[in-house]
Amino acid sequence: MMDGFQMLGLKRSASMDEEVLQQAYAKLSREEHPDHGGSDATAAAVNQAFETLRVPELRLKHLLELAGPEEVKAWRTVPLDDGMMTIFGRLGAMLQKASAMAVKLEGARSALVKALLADGVLKLRDELEQLGMEIAGKKEEMEAQLADLDGRLETGEQEAWKELASLQARFAYLGRWRGQIRESLLLLTVD
């Protein structure tokens, strides 16, 4: 398995300084670019390493695969705290509303019917965008936990590895939910 941290010359860690990552990527991608004597395969691997380390859920998954204890790699739990469960419940309700509204919009043929639906569409879009901002805030909150987690991981603390696995799963949920919100916003477009 390719070690993205090693490839980019970075220390294995849960947290990542975006600027340091960008600099390491830029330097290595220049050196390994096919136009400068590098191979296509190496350039692709550098790009893959950058994309993996740039996204928290992918970075944490990669770190677990590389360095996590075997029992933690297999450890799975429902990683939703109360805040995540609240978001999940609200998201489900909003996605149902968005789907129903999209069906109404699709069936609307006249300008009058579309105009009558427009207010409801705008309110629903606002609610979805607000929830998207809450999800982004939750993601930032979780990212803030990663630096503290790095120190605990270095000591080999078993609970830290479990927490890392839980954070990775929560980042994955948030990513999926943000994608669902984007899809719903696209469906709720009034001509």
TrEMBL record:
- UniProt xrefs under PROSITE patterns: DNAJ_2
Which SMART domains does the record match to this protein? DnaJ
Under SUPFAM superfamilies, the record lists:
Chaperone J-domain (SSF46565)
Q: Work out whether the entry's keyword set contains Ubl conjugation.
A: no
Q: What is this protein called?
A: J domain-containing protein
What keywords are assigned to this protein?
Answer: Coiled coil
Keyword Cell division carried by entry:
no
Give the highest taxon in the source lineage.
Bacteria
* Residue ranges occupied by any J domain in the UniProt entry: 3-68
Coiled coil segments of this chain: 121-159
